[in-house]
Each structure stands twice: as C-alpha cells, then as structure tokens.
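Private note to self, pasted from the team thread so I don't lose it. Backbone tokens:
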C-alpha cells in the first residue's frame, strides 16, 4: 500500500548508488559525510538490508540470548519494492542511495538480481585490512567480554578458554564471509562495469579523509563545495575498545587472510605487505 498522501502516478525512486561494505571499514563515516551534503538524500536508517539473500542461519546462543535472522525481502514482491521506494520518496532531485555493509556478502547470482532491478546503480566498496577488520569486529561485538582478557586476575585456564572462543568467533563462516574481498569484488565486478565501481581503502581514508571524500563526490557527480567541513575529520565512528589482538588469534587470522591480501595486491597493484605485520 502506498503511503498516505502519495500519488500513485508518481514514478518510484530507487537508489542511484549503493554502499556495499564491508563492516568495520568506515561505512558509517561515509554515511554521515554523505548525509551532510545538500545534494545527497539518504534514508534515516543507515542499513536497509533490502537485497540481503536468504541463507541458512544457525540460532546463536550467547549470554542467555538466542537470536536468528529469519526475515528477508522478496525481490519478486511488488509490495516490498513499494516499501523500498518509499525510503527514497523525499529525495527530489538529489542523488539518493543507501549503505548496507552486508551487501558485500551477496552471491554472484544475487548481485545479478540487484543489477537487473537497478541497472544503472553505482557501487562503493570500502576495503580494510581483513585481519584488522576482523579484530575490530570482534572487539566491537564482544566488547562486554573482551576487556577481561587483559585482567591480571583472570586465571590462565579462563584466559585460554576465552582465546579459544575468540578464535572460534573469528573463524565463524559468517564472519569470514564479510572479509572475503576476492569473492565480493569478483561477484560485483562480474555485473558492474568499472566506471560504476569505486573502491575506498580504509588506510587512505585514515591518511587523508578529505581527499577520499572528494573522490566520492566526483564519482557521484556531486558539487565538492557541498562537502561538510568535517570531511577531514578522522575521529573514529562506532569505535571498538582498544585491546591488543592475542597472538593465537592473530596467527589464525594471518594464516587465513594472507592469500586474500596477496590477491588484493595483484588486483589493485599496491603494496599491502604491512597488513600482515600487525
């Protein structure tokens, strides 16, 4: 059903661009900076998850809470598309888009479905050292527990148990999927031409955020004069507690992600060896 007061003869508006992730890679920073530009419209909610695809989820139990994510949008359901269009109803003549980091995990087939519905959409992918990204995600999601790791009163047995739990969490298939850049890039490049793909490296954002935001403005054909004064702000957003990565966790993550990092070096022609020297 259309929202009250909306004319049925008005063409639905869909996003001009998608931010597809990855999580813990400055996507919230990007959302906040773009939202401040007068030529950009973003939904009030950062992550719409409209294109998430159904996949089996094992109920997770932690600290007495059980959670699953059983609900997904049906891309063949017109009512769901009306809901999606309603999220951009206030865009007017502005560029509009949405940022959902989980889109980095979409299968190649699902990406094809996205492009079938949004054939001209532009895509932005934030890329961060997958080892640092994984640890940042763990620190954030386990922030109530991970501080105990540095507690001098914590017994060795409990410390080992916590380390084992962190390794298991770091190597969980869902978490690994979010940092699988070869898969993500391959899936999106299979359907999106290079002129409609923009890659932002987290290291470049940290080094010169203003320059990276100007790249975004150029990519989206925005007036750079509309970039907010905070464009050069490097303050962390959604920061995680500062805790050093345990050596055992680091070893497992380095072993897993080293081939991915070498793939990125070859794909982008840049030296990323420092990513293995955390």
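Design output:
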């Amino acid at each position: 059903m259309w929202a009250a007061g909306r004319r049925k003869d008005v063409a639905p508006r869909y996003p001009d661009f998608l931010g597809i992730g990855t999580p813990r890679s400055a996507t919230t920073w990007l959302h906040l900076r773009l939202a401040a530009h007068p030529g950009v419209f973003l939904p009030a909610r950062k992550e719409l998850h409209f294109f998430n695809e159904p996949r089996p989820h094992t109920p997770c139990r932690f600290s007495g809470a059980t959670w699953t994510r059983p609900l997904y949008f049906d891309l063949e359901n017109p009512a769901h598309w009306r809901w999606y269009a309603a999220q951009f109803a206030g865009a007017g003549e502005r560029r509009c888009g949405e940022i959902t980091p989980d889109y980095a995990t979409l299968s190649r087939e699902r990406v094809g479905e996205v492009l079938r519905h949004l054939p001209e959409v532009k895509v932005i992918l934030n890329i961060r050292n997958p080892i640092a990204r994984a640890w940042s995600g763990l620190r954030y999601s386990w922030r109530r527990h991970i501080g105990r790791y540095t507690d001098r009163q914590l017994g060795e047995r409990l410390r080992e148990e916590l380390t084992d739990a962190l390794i298991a969490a770091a190597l969980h298939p869902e978490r690994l999927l979010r940092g699988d850049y070869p898969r993500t890039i391959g899936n999106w490049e299979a359907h999106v031409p290079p002129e409609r793909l923009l890659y932002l490296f987290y290291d470049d954002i940290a080094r010169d955020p203003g320059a990276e935001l100007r790249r975004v403005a150029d990519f989206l054909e925005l007036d750079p004069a509309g970039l907010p004064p905070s464009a050069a702000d490097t303050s962390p957003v959604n920061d995680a507690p500062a805790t050093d990565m345990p050596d055992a966790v680091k070893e497992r993550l380095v072993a897993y992600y080293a081939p991915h990092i070498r793939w990125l070096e070859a794909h982008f022609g840049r030296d990323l060896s420092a990513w293995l020297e955390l």
